[in-house]
Amino acid sequence: MTTVDGIVVVDKPGGWTSHDVVSRIRRLARTRRVGHAGTLDPMATGVLVLGVERATRLLGHLALREKAYEATVRLGASTVTDDAEGAVLGGASPSGLSRADVEAGIARLTGPISQVPSSVSAVKVAGERAYRRVRSGEEVTLEPRPVEVALFELVSMAPSGEFLDVDVRVECSSGTYIRALARDLGASLGVGGHLTSLRRTRVGTYTLSDASTMEQLDSSFHVIPIATVAAQTFPRYDVDEAMARLVGYGQKLPDLDLGAEGPVAMFAPDGRFLALYELAGDPPIARPIAVFAT
Protein backbone atom coordinates (compact mmCIF):
# COMPACT_ATOMS: atom_id res chain seq x y z
CA MET A 1 0.00 0.00 0.00
CA THR A 2 1.30 3.47 -0.88
CA THR A 3 0.97 5.89 2.03
CA VAL A 4 -1.12 8.95 1.17
CA ASP A 5 -0.17 12.37 2.53
CA GLY A 6 -3.22 13.84 4.20
CA ILE A 7 -5.56 14.18 7.15
CA VAL A 8 -7.36 11.51 9.16
CA VAL A 9 -10.28 12.62 11.35
CA VAL A 10 -10.91 10.14 14.15
CA ASP A 11 -13.81 9.80 16.57
CA LYS A 12 -11.60 8.88 19.53
CA PRO A 13 -13.07 6.26 21.86
CA GLY A 14 -13.07 6.65 25.62
CA GLY A 15 -10.14 5.07 27.43
CA TRP A 16 -7.71 5.70 24.58
CA THR A 17 -4.94 8.26 24.87
CA SER A 18 -4.22 10.47 21.88
CA HIS A 19 -0.90 8.63 21.57
CA ASP A 20 -2.80 5.31 21.40
CA VAL A 21 -4.67 6.69 18.37
CA VAL A 22 -1.44 7.93 16.77
CA SER A 23 0.12 4.48 17.24
CA ARG A 24 -2.84 2.76 15.57
CA ILE A 25 -2.85 5.20 12.64
CA ARG A 26 0.90 4.68 12.20
CA ARG A 27 0.25 0.96 11.85
CA LEU A 28 -2.68 1.42 9.46
CA ALA A 29 -0.85 4.02 7.34
CA ARG A 30 2.44 2.07 7.52
CA THR A 31 4.46 5.14 8.42
CA ARG A 32 5.96 6.70 11.52
CA ARG A 33 5.12 10.19 10.25
CA VAL A 34 1.81 10.73 12.03
CA GLY A 35 0.98 13.63 14.35
CA HIS A 36 -2.12 15.08 15.97
CA ALA A 37 -3.51 18.61 16.18
CA GLY A 38 -4.21 18.80 19.90
CA THR A 39 -4.73 15.99 22.39
CA LEU A 40 -7.84 14.62 24.07
CA ASP A 41 -7.84 13.20 27.61
CA PRO A 42 -8.29 9.41 27.84
CA MET A 43 -11.79 9.82 29.34
CA ALA A 44 -12.87 12.09 26.47
CA THR A 45 -14.30 11.01 23.13
CA GLY A 46 -14.76 12.77 19.81
CA VAL A 47 -12.91 14.60 17.08
CA LEU A 48 -9.15 14.13 16.88
CA VAL A 49 -7.41 15.46 13.74
CA LEU A 50 -4.22 13.73 12.62
CA GLY A 51 -1.75 14.41 9.83
CA VAL A 52 -0.05 11.67 7.85
CA GLU A 53 3.34 12.07 6.13
CA ARG A 54 3.78 15.59 4.68
CA ALA A 55 0.45 16.70 6.15
CA THR A 56 2.02 16.63 9.63
CA ARG A 57 3.64 19.93 8.59
CA LEU A 58 0.30 21.27 7.36
CA LEU A 59 -1.45 20.84 10.72
CA GLY A 60 0.08 23.99 12.19
CA HIS A 61 -1.28 26.07 9.30
CA LEU A 62 -4.85 24.77 9.42
CA ALA A 63 -7.46 26.86 11.24
CA LEU A 64 -7.89 24.43 14.12
CA ARG A 65 -7.89 26.82 17.07
CA GLU A 66 -11.68 26.82 17.54
CA LYS A 67 -13.08 23.73 19.24
CA ALA A 68 -16.53 22.63 20.40
CA TYR A 69 -17.55 20.22 23.15
CA GLU A 70 -20.49 18.59 24.86
CA ALA A 71 -19.84 17.91 28.53
CA THR A 72 -21.42 16.98 31.84
CA VAL A 73 -20.37 18.84 34.99
CA ARG A 74 -21.18 17.28 38.36
CA LEU A 75 -21.82 19.95 40.99
CA GLY A 76 -21.37 19.08 44.67
CA ALA A 77 -17.79 17.76 44.75
CA SER A 78 -14.35 18.84 43.60
CA THR A 79 -11.62 16.32 42.80
CA VAL A 80 -7.83 16.23 42.53
CA THR A 81 -7.97 15.81 38.76
CA ASP A 82 -11.05 18.01 38.15
CA ASP A 83 -12.78 14.94 36.67
CA ALA A 84 -14.41 11.74 37.90
CA GLU A 85 -11.14 9.80 37.93
CA GLY A 86 -9.62 11.77 40.82
CA ALA A 87 -10.05 11.55 44.58
CA VAL A 88 -12.71 13.83 46.06
CA LEU A 89 -11.31 16.90 47.79
CA GLY A 90 -14.54 18.25 49.22
CA GLY A 91 -17.79 19.90 48.30
CA ALA A 92 -21.19 21.05 49.46
CA SER A 93 -24.77 20.19 48.66
CA PRO A 94 -26.01 21.79 45.43
CA SER A 95 -29.67 21.21 46.35
CA GLY A 96 -30.34 24.92 46.77
CA LEU A 97 -29.04 25.88 43.32
CA SER A 98 -31.56 27.11 40.75
CA ARG A 99 -31.19 27.13 36.99
CA ALA A 100 -30.66 30.89 37.22
CA ASP A 101 -27.80 30.36 39.69
CA VAL A 102 -26.06 27.92 37.35
CA GLU A 103 -26.60 30.15 34.32
CA ALA A 104 -25.11 33.11 36.22
CA GLY A 105 -22.07 31.01 37.10
CA ILE A 106 -21.69 29.98 33.46
CA ALA A 107 -21.96 33.61 32.31
CA ARG A 108 -19.01 34.54 34.55
CA LEU A 109 -16.89 31.98 32.68
CA THR A 110 -17.89 33.09 29.18
CA GLY A 111 -15.90 35.37 26.91
CA PRO A 112 -12.21 36.29 27.31
CA ILE A 113 -11.21 34.84 30.69
CA SER A 114 -8.06 34.04 32.65
CA GLN A 115 -7.95 30.31 33.36
CA VAL A 116 -5.65 28.24 35.55
CA PRO A 117 -5.09 24.93 33.72
CA SER A 118 -5.94 21.72 35.53
CA SER A 119 -3.02 20.45 37.59
CA VAL A 120 -3.14 17.18 35.63
CA SER A 121 -2.79 18.95 32.28
CA ALA A 122 0.12 18.48 29.87
CA VAL A 123 1.52 21.94 30.72
CA LYS A 124 5.23 21.67 31.51
CA VAL A 125 6.59 22.69 34.92
CA ALA A 126 10.38 22.95 34.98
CA GLY A 127 10.55 20.73 31.92
CA GLU A 128 8.18 18.01 33.17
CA ARG A 129 4.48 17.54 32.42
CA ALA A 130 2.27 18.75 35.28
CA TYR A 131 0.24 15.53 35.35
CA ARG A 132 3.38 13.46 35.95
CA ARG A 133 4.31 15.61 38.94
CA VAL A 134 0.78 15.29 40.36
CA ARG A 135 0.77 11.51 39.91
CA SER A 136 4.07 11.29 41.78
CA GLY A 137 2.45 13.04 44.76
CA GLU A 138 3.75 16.55 44.14
CA GLU A 139 1.48 19.57 44.62
CA VAL A 140 1.44 21.62 41.43
CA THR A 141 0.26 25.21 40.99
CA LEU A 142 0.04 26.54 37.44
CA GLU A 143 -0.07 30.13 36.24
CA PRO A 144 -3.33 31.49 34.76
CA ARG A 145 -3.46 32.08 31.03
CA PRO A 146 -5.86 33.95 28.74
CA VAL A 147 -8.40 31.86 26.82
CA GLU A 148 -11.56 32.63 24.87
CA VAL A 149 -14.85 30.86 25.70
CA ALA A 150 -17.12 31.93 22.85
CA LEU A 151 -20.07 29.81 24.01
CA PHE A 152 -20.82 28.20 27.39
CA GLU A 153 -24.42 27.08 27.31
CA LEU A 154 -26.55 25.22 29.82
CA VAL A 155 -28.45 22.43 28.03
CA SER A 156 -30.08 20.64 30.97
CA MET A 157 -29.64 19.89 34.66
CA ALA A 158 -30.90 17.10 36.86
CA PRO A 159 -30.22 15.71 40.36
CA SER A 160 -27.97 12.65 40.55
CA GLY A 161 -28.16 11.35 44.10
CA GLU A 162 -26.60 14.00 46.32
CA PHE A 163 -25.14 15.81 43.30
CA LEU A 164 -26.44 17.96 40.45
CA ASP A 165 -25.46 16.97 36.91
CA VAL A 166 -25.30 19.83 34.43
CA ASP A 167 -25.08 19.18 30.68
CA VAL A 168 -23.38 21.99 28.76
CA ARG A 169 -22.13 22.98 25.32
CA VAL A 170 -18.83 24.83 24.96
CA GLU A 171 -17.11 26.55 22.04
CA CYS A 172 -13.66 27.83 22.86
CA SER A 173 -10.11 28.53 21.74
CA SER A 174 -7.28 26.04 21.84
CA GLY A 175 -5.70 25.87 25.26
CA THR A 176 -9.03 26.00 27.10
CA TYR A 177 -9.45 23.19 29.62
CA ILE A 178 -13.06 22.04 29.93
CA ARG A 179 -12.29 20.27 33.20
CA ALA A 180 -11.02 23.62 34.52
CA LEU A 181 -14.34 25.21 33.50
CA ALA A 182 -16.11 22.48 35.49
CA ARG A 183 -13.85 23.11 38.50
CA ASP A 184 -14.30 26.88 38.32
CA LEU A 185 -18.08 26.66 37.84
CA GLY A 186 -18.38 24.56 40.99
CA ALA A 187 -16.07 26.88 42.91
CA SER A 188 -17.97 30.02 41.85
CA LEU A 189 -21.22 28.42 43.05
CA GLY A 190 -19.64 27.41 46.36
CA VAL A 191 -20.31 23.68 46.01
CA GLY A 192 -17.36 22.28 44.07
CA GLY A 193 -17.51 20.70 40.64
CA HIS A 194 -15.81 18.26 38.33
CA LEU A 195 -16.18 16.83 34.83
CA THR A 196 -17.87 13.45 34.37
CA SER A 197 -18.06 13.26 30.56
CA LEU A 198 -16.56 15.09 27.62
CA ARG A 199 -17.12 14.76 23.89
CA ARG A 200 -15.37 16.99 21.36
CA THR A 201 -17.74 17.67 18.49
CA ARG A 202 -15.62 19.98 16.34
CA VAL A 203 -12.02 21.02 15.68
CA GLY A 204 -11.84 23.95 13.26
CA THR A 205 -14.10 22.98 10.37
CA TYR A 206 -13.89 19.23 11.09
CA THR A 207 -16.93 17.80 12.89
CA LEU A 208 -18.13 14.39 14.03
CA SER A 209 -19.72 13.92 10.60
CA ASP A 210 -16.20 13.96 9.13
CA ALA A 211 -14.83 11.51 11.71
CA SER A 212 -14.41 7.74 11.53
CA THR A 213 -14.37 5.35 14.46
CA MET A 214 -11.33 3.17 15.03
CA GLU A 215 -13.40 0.15 13.96
CA GLN A 216 -14.28 1.84 10.66
CA LEU A 217 -10.64 2.75 10.03
CA ASP A 218 -9.53 -0.79 10.86
CA SER A 219 -11.85 -2.19 8.21
CA SER A 220 -11.44 0.59 5.63
CA PHE A 221 -8.57 2.97 6.27
CA HIS A 222 -8.76 6.21 4.34
CA VAL A 223 -6.99 9.55 4.34
CA ILE A 224 -8.25 12.92 3.10
CA PRO A 225 -5.50 13.74 0.55
CA ILE A 226 -3.34 16.76 1.33
CA ALA A 227 -4.36 18.46 -1.95
CA THR A 228 -8.05 18.14 -1.00
CA VAL A 229 -7.40 19.52 2.48
CA ALA A 230 -5.44 22.48 1.08
CA ALA A 231 -8.09 23.27 -1.56
CA GLN A 232 -10.87 23.15 1.05
CA THR A 233 -9.00 25.25 3.60
CA PHE A 234 -7.13 28.00 1.72
CA PRO A 235 -7.68 30.24 -1.32
CA ARG A 236 -6.36 28.41 -4.38
CA TYR A 237 -3.84 29.71 -6.95
CA ASP A 238 -3.00 27.61 -10.01
CA VAL A 239 0.42 28.20 -11.58
CA ASP A 240 1.94 27.16 -14.92
CA GLU A 241 4.81 24.71 -15.25
CA ALA A 242 7.52 27.37 -15.18
CA MET A 243 6.17 28.94 -12.01
CA ALA A 244 5.52 25.51 -10.48
CA ARG A 245 9.27 24.85 -10.61
CA LEU A 246 9.98 28.10 -8.77
CA VAL A 247 7.30 27.38 -6.16
CA GLY A 248 8.67 23.87 -5.70
CA TYR A 249 12.05 25.37 -4.79
CA GLY A 250 10.44 27.89 -2.44
CA GLN A 251 11.41 30.94 -4.50
CA LYS A 252 9.96 34.39 -3.85
CA LEU A 253 7.64 35.59 -6.61
CA PRO A 254 7.96 39.42 -6.74
CA ASP A 255 5.58 40.01 -9.64
CA LEU A 256 2.75 37.75 -8.49
CA ASP A 257 -0.48 39.04 -6.97
CA LEU A 258 -2.02 36.17 -4.99
CA GLY A 259 -5.35 37.97 -4.81
CA ALA A 260 -5.90 37.16 -1.14
CA GLU A 261 -4.55 37.92 2.32
CA GLY A 262 -3.10 35.16 4.47
CA PRO A 263 -1.97 31.73 3.28
CA VAL A 264 -2.76 30.74 -0.32
CA ALA A 265 -2.47 27.16 -1.62
CA MET A 266 -0.34 26.90 -4.76
CA PHE A 267 -1.22 24.15 -7.24
CA ALA A 268 0.67 22.78 -10.24
CA PRO A 269 -1.05 22.24 -13.64
CA ASP A 270 -1.39 18.52 -12.85
CA GLY A 271 -3.28 19.28 -9.61
CA ARG A 272 -0.40 18.68 -7.20
CA PHE A 273 -0.41 20.82 -4.05
CA LEU A 274 2.96 22.55 -4.03
CA ALA A 275 3.14 25.05 -1.18
CA LEU A 276 1.53 27.70 0.96
CA TYR A 277 2.45 31.27 0.00
CA GLU A 278 1.47 34.67 1.36
CA LEU A 279 2.05 38.30 0.51
CA ALA A 280 4.51 39.89 2.96
CA GLY A 281 6.88 42.83 3.13
CA ASP A 282 6.76 46.38 1.80
CA PRO A 283 6.13 46.30 -1.07
CA PRO A 284 4.26 42.98 -0.67
CA ILE A 285 5.98 40.00 -2.30
CA ALA A 286 4.64 36.45 -2.58
CA ARG A 287 6.80 34.41 -0.22
CA PRO A 288 6.67 30.73 0.83
CA ILE A 289 5.29 29.77 4.25
CA ALA A 290 5.76 26.04 3.76
CA VAL A 291 6.74 23.98 0.70
CA PHE A 292 5.22 20.52 0.21
CA ALA A 293 6.42 19.69 -3.32
CA THR A 294 8.40 16.48 -3.63
TrEMBL record:
<dbReference type="Pfam" id="PF16198">
    <property type="entry name" value="TruB_C_2"/>
</dbReference>
<keyword id="KW-0819">tRNA processing</keyword>
<protein>
    <recommendedName>
        <fullName>tRNA pseudouridine synthase B</fullName>
        <ecNumber>5.4.99.25</ecNumber>
    </recommendedName>
</protein>
<dbReference type="Pfam" id="PF09142">
    <property type="entry name" value="TruB_C"/>
</dbReference>
<comment type="similarity">
    <text>Belongs to the pseudouridine synthase TruB family. Type 1 subfamily.</text>
</comment>
<feature type="domain" description="tRNA pseudouridylate synthase B C-terminal">
    <location>
        <begin position="179"/>
        <end position="221"/>
    </location>
</feature>
<feature type="domain" description="Pseudouridine synthase II N-terminal">
    <location>
        <begin position="26"/>
        <end position="178"/>
    </location>
</feature>
<comment type="function">
    <text>Responsible for synthesis of pseudouridine from uracil-55 in the psi GC loop of transfer RNAs.</text>
</comment>
<dbReference type="InterPro" id="IPR002501">
    <property type="entry name" value="PsdUridine_synth_N"/>
</dbReference>
<feature type="domain" description="tRNA pseudouridine synthase II TruB subfamily 2 C-terminal">
    <location>
        <begin position="234"/>
        <end position="292"/>
    </location>
</feature>
<dbReference type="InterPro" id="IPR014780">
    <property type="entry name" value="tRNA_psdUridine_synth_TruB"/>
</dbReference>
<dbReference type="InterPro" id="IPR036974">
    <property type="entry name" value="PUA_sf"/>
</dbReference>
<keyword id="KW-0413">Isomerase</keyword>
<feature type="active site" description="Nucleophile">
    <location>
        <position position="41"/>
    </location>
</feature>
<dbReference type="GO" id="GO:0160148">
    <property type="term" value="F:tRNA pseudouridine(55) synthase activity"/>
</dbReference>
<dbReference type="Pfam" id="PF01509">
    <property type="entry name" value="TruB_N"/>
</dbReference>
<dbReference type="InterPro" id="IPR015225">
    <property type="entry name" value="tRNA_psdUridine_synth_fam2_C"/>
</dbReference>
<dbReference type="InterPro" id="IPR015947">
    <property type="entry name" value="PUA-like_sf"/>
</dbReference>
<dbReference type="InterPro" id="IPR032819">
    <property type="entry name" value="TruB_C"/>
</dbReference>
<dbReference type="InterPro" id="IPR020103">
    <property type="entry name" value="PsdUridine_synth_cat_dom_sf"/>
</dbReference>
